[in-house]
Amino acid sequence: MYIEMKSQTEGITESIKHFQKWNWRLLNHGEEQYLIDLPELPEVENKQKVKEVKSALSYAERKSFPTTQKSDSWDAECVAKILLNKLDILPDANPQDIYWSIGQLVARRNALIKAHTALKNQLHMQLSHHYPSYKKFFSDIDGKCALEFWHSYPAPHHLKGVSLEDLREMLLKARHNTCSIKKAEEIKALVAADGETKREYQESRDFLIQSYVRDIRFKKEEVQKVEVDLSRMMKQLGFQLETMSGIDLVTASALVAEIGDIHRFSCPDKLARFAGIAPESSVRAGRVRNRRASRETAPCMASSIT
Fold first, then answer.
1. 65 near 58, Cβ under 8 Å?
2. What is the reported pLDDT for 258?
3. By mean pLDDT, which of 33-37, 161-165, 202-206, 212-216 is the weakest?
4. Whole-model pTM over 0.85
5. What is the pLDDT of residues 46-66, one digit of tens each?
């Protein structure tokens, strides 16, 4: 969260009102998006001093009360209290558009993957009624060849009158000429073994499957486009995270989006603590105990690493 400060003693009330105006507009989109996007703040563009309040600080402030609550006005009040009590140690906001843009691309890709997973589950449910043995048709139901088959033949009755050669020809185009007549024979045999599955309002059922297929194709195309743009943005930074074993473009971009400018960490220990992978030490009665690391600061980064 961010808020404009004119000085340490002046403008507190006006700043809180200013923050509440922005906070109210953004918090309606869900708890995960209640941070203000710095590039959109006119104060930053006008070179005015802007202080940064991490979400972990506002979370700790909210949990410090006997009775917790979650609302826009209460979040604004918690941030205002942090500003009053810790203004001298709060860092100045230093927004960098390239990290912000990568973060937006990562969020867009995550949303597409989540929607694609939901569509795939819905397609599973519909296919189980039409083709009881559908899992034996293809290794992946949302592969290119599988999607072409589901879209062309959403139900077994569409295969009536279709010869083995016609079915093989359709599969060949989807598989780039790598499909044999044996696959067509296997599908025909499985469909015959399943028996009649046509039900009332079959046209609507067929439309649903074709709609899921079209939507899945769209999601896949959009994911590819997002990844192309992510690759272009990551090349501008010149990082070599992908040279590490087990880290691809998706993981590397997620780490960069979460960390931001890595030069703001003076040592690796601080970065590990920020990522939530460094153990935390607590001292009680002279005894030092190490406990599980907290992931409140960068939960997405910790999950990507572990």
1. no
2. 86
3. 33-37
4. no
5. 666 777 787 778 888 888 888
